[in-house]
Amino acid sequence: MFEVIADESGQGSAELILVFGGIIVIVTVAVVWYRNYVRGSETAMNSDVQNVTNSIKGLKSKF
């Protein structure tokens, strides 16, 4: 009833497009994850800097 067309001239291009699409998805997910990681560490870093500043002020009052 249906005959399979033997023309495979565009198959390589279609596969290449799928590979590039997969790479783009992986890179996008990695960028979003890394951005969230950096934003989360910013709060911890500010807290650590504030703790060091308070410790230095505490030492200053002892001298």
Please, could you describe this protein's structure?
The chain is mainly α and 63 residues long. It has one domain (1-62). Helices cover 83% and strands 0% of the residues. It contains one helix and no strands. It has one helix at 11-62. The chain is rod-shaped and about 90 Å long. The mean pLDDT is 83. This is Class III signal peptide. The chain crosses the membrane at residues 16-34. It comes from Methanothermobacter defluvii.
How many alpha or pi helices? 1
The residue ranges in which pLDDT falls below 50 over 5 or more consecutive positions are none
Distance between the termini: 96 Å
Q: Helix fraction?
A: over 70%
Rounded to the nearest angstrom, the radius of gyration is: 28 Å
Q: Care to count the β-strands?
A: 0
* Broad shape: rod-shaped
Tally of structural domains:
1
Q: Can you write the helix and strand succession as a string?
A: H
In brief:
This protein has one helix spanning 11-62. The chain is mainly alpha-helical and 63 residues long.
Give the helices and strands, then pairings.
Blueprint: H1 11-62
